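so my prof wants the structure for this chain in the tokens format not the other one, which i didnt know existed until like an hour ago. anyway here's the sequence
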Amino acid sequence: MEKIGFIIFAFRGQVAMLSTHPYGCLVIQRVSEHGSDEQQGQCMVDEILESAYVVAQG
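here's what i got, hopefully its the right format
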């Protein structure tokens, strides 16, 4: 899981935007499926939830 930690770090502040991108959403999905430590995964979820309205429209 340490192998993808740098990816999650690079996504910070951009998770919601990536979640609405045709290919970015696949990357977000795969990263969340293949795990990370719980805190890193929760950061991604928190960013999506903070922008739920925008993400839902995307």
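also thought this was worth mentioning. Residues 20 and 56 are 8 Å apart (CA to CA).
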